[in-house]
Each structure stands twice: as structure tokens, then as C-alpha cells.
Amino acid sequence: MEINRLTLPNGLRLVHCRDNATAMVAVNTLYNVGARDERPDFTGMAHLFEHLMFGGSANVADFDGVLSAAGGMSNAWTSNDFTNFYDVLPAVNLETALYLESDRMKRLAFSDKALEVQRNVVVEEFKQMCLNRPYGDMEHAFRKLAYKVHPYRVPVIGEDFSHIEKVEQQQVKEWFHSHYAPNNAVLAVCGNVEWERVRELVEKWYGDIPRRDIAPRLYPAEPLPTEPRTHVMSGDVPQTALTIAYPMAPYGHPEYFAADLLSDVLANGKSSRFYRRLLMGTDMFTEVDAAIQGCEEPGLFTINAKLTANGPEAENAAINAIEAELAKLVDEPVSEVELQRCINRLESSRTFALLNYLSVAQTLAHAEMHGEDANRFMEPYRAITPASLQSAARNIFTPRHRLTLLYRPTSKKSEIRSQKSDELRGEARRFRRSQ
């Protein structure tokens, strides 16, 4: 795809790709700020601010109302590393989206009413996600197990909803002025709009937004574990959940891309090893998956499973079965055929994703943030060989680095659920026979 780029004098990076197959346009704004930038006593701030960005700006009291009147819609998400906002609307109304986004980048309204409303929304979201559903507190426990000093030890939603409840306008203004700036953002536009028109409008609406001083990141690096860590917890959950994790390289490191392919070897599709050997080949699991946390700083290779039976014997058997599969990746290189199959699946998935102009806009934004060429996405994956994949497996799956979290049903219900485990295993057997 043909990509156009421009950096404004205020530091805003613009990237564009025209898509003649649609009458729409996507405007994506990626800010280089996330949960890792929060103070320890104000966790959840990045996520709260995502909500506050829809609460009105200097010249626009109702962001969604104006965008909707132009035939558009918007949404956003927050991660540990980034905060992302996107708008989709008819291409003829591109200027409306650029006006709206530039206005809230320039100056929010800092409304006390908006702060009160969004505080309550985020607190309620915390309660629903983390306190009032099965396994909701598992992410908090897992991150505290995996990280001891790095901000990744706290989920994006925050450590406790009391942190959000005490946020005042002063903290909101400090967050905005130290992170939401043109020199800390990438603006990506994809749709049926020519480059000259996009450049003209972006210079018109963003050109006078001043640069700001961005708050430095002063937190410490996370040391590698010196011995295996295990945490056991219990709650009102239907079955035992197991998470095994290993520290891995950050985005951009060659071993990051190798870890991505290792997760596909293990758990991407019905030809994957976990599916064939663990889910279909045993009666220990109702689900088992592997994935990487795509972090800007050293992250985690995670394996998540749900067990058909409860108790130490079932847990040990499941852990041993998973570890045996990891050991095979360490001891034996994957075949050329298996590796190529994973690369082909990744490239196919990427190709189909880029048929959508919104996906293209978000891909362009992330590539520009990383200083990459989106057209060369597959190059680090194609450079991986069976030998380099095995080497990465040896580095990642180091026994002393292993992190294990077990979430057991509460003891008062475990007896009832253990009686049902035979039914689960029987269903698993019948399912395999039907395949």
C-alpha cells in the first residue's frame, strides 16, 4: 500500500493511505501514554482519561453528538502503553473528525460534571469486571505475581477503584498537559480521501496546537525472577483456572517475534500442538491457550487453561502436561513445515485485516509510533528459522523464571464440582470421538 507521511512543526506525526474501495474514512489518534505512566496512588488514570476525552472540549460540548450528525461514530481503548481514539465517518465529512480531534487535543473543557459522571462510570466498570464476575480478580493477582517493581504490576483498569474516586481536576489537568500533546501522538487517516486534502486539513486544524513537555518515564526495570513463583487463590468460580507465564522480550526485539510464532505453534488453530495433544488428546482440559502480551517493555508469554477436575492431583497433571509441550520446543526444533504454516496463517490474517480501512489506520498509527514501515510487517517473522525459534524457546521457557497462578473453586463448593468433573471428562471424550 502507498503510505504518505508528514511531521508538523509541533511534532505531530501524520500518516495516510488512500482506500478507493470505500466511501468512508477512519481517523485514528494514537497517544504515547498508558497505564505505565500512572502514579502508584492514582492507578486507572489512563483509562479514566480515555473516558474524559469524550466529555467536551474548548469549542465542542458534545463530541459524539457532532460526530453522529456527520454520519460518524467513535470509540477508544487504553493499554499499558498507549491510548487510542478512532472515528469513522463518510469521507466527505473528514474535516468534522479532524476539527473534533484537534479541539480536544488542544484544550479539554475540564468539566466538573464530566469528571463526576466518568468517575462513576469507571468505578462501576471496575466493580463489574473485577469484583462481580467469576475470575474477575485473577488479573490483579497475576500481575502482582509477575511484576514486583514495574508499573505493569497493575492492570489498566487500576489497582483499586478508590484511586479513581479521589481523582480531582488538578490531577486531570496535570495528566492532560503532560501527555496529550501533538509531539506525543500519531494521527493516521485511511479512506477515500486524497493525500493533498488530508495534509491541507491537518495543517489547518492541528498546526497551531503548541508542543508540550512530556512527563519522563522514571520507573525501574523489572528484574527477572530468580526462582519459580506460585500463587494459589480461591473464589466462587465453576472450575480450576491455571495460568503459567514466562518473562519475554519487549516489542521490536527479535525474540518478541519468535515468541509470537511460538504461541501460534502451541495454540493457533486445530493443527496447533495444544489443541491436538492437550485439548483433544487428554481429558484434563476444557480449554487451553497460549498468547503473548504485546508490550513495549519486557512482557509475558502466557498459557491459560481451565481444568476438568479440581484438586492438587489434577493441577499437577495439567502443569506437567503443559510443561512437557514447552520442553519439546526447547529440546527439538520445529519442522520447516510447521513453522511455515504458522507464518502463512499470520500473513493471511494480516492481509485480511488490512482489507478494512479502520484496521489500516490503526496499523499505520502503530507502525509510525514504532518508526516502522507497515508494508514490511512480515520481515522479522520471515527471518525466523527453526534454529532461532528453538533458541528463543530455550531463553523464554527457563524453569527458574516460571510464574504459576492457580485459581481454585471455594472449598465449600469444590466437593459438588468434583462430582461434576467426571461428567466434564465424559463430555470431552464424546466430543473427541465426534470429531
Structure, described:
This protein has 435 residues and is an alpha+beta fold. Helix content is 45%, strand content 18%. The protein is built from 16 helices and eleven strands. The protein has helices at 45-52, 63-69, 94-106, 112-131, 138-146, 161-165, 169-179, 195-206, 254-267, 273-279, 312-331, 336-353, 357-369, 379-382, 386-396, 411-434; strands at residues 4-7, 13-18, 24-31, 73-78, 83-90, 185-191, 229-235, 241-248, 285-292, 299-307, 403-409. The strands form two sheets. The protein has a six-stranded mixed β-sheet with strand order 1-2-6-3-5-4, with helices on both faces. A five-stranded mixed β-sheet has the order 7-11-8-10-9, sandwiched between helices. β9 (285-292) and β10 (299-307) form a beta hairpin. α1 (45-52) crosses α4 (112-131), α3 (94-106) packs parallel to α8 and α9 packs across α15. The protein is globular. The protein starts with a strand and ends with a helix. The model has no long low-confidence stretch (mean pLDDT 94).
Nearest-integer average pLDDT? 94
Q: Describe the global form.
A: globular
How would a textbook summarize the main sheet? Answer: 6 strands, mixed
Number of helices: 16
Give a short summary of the structure:
This protein has 435 residues and is an alpha+beta fold. The chain has 16 helices and eleven strands.
Short descriptors:
alpha+beta; five-stranded mixed β-sheet; 11 strands; six-stranded mixed β-sheet; 435 residues; globular
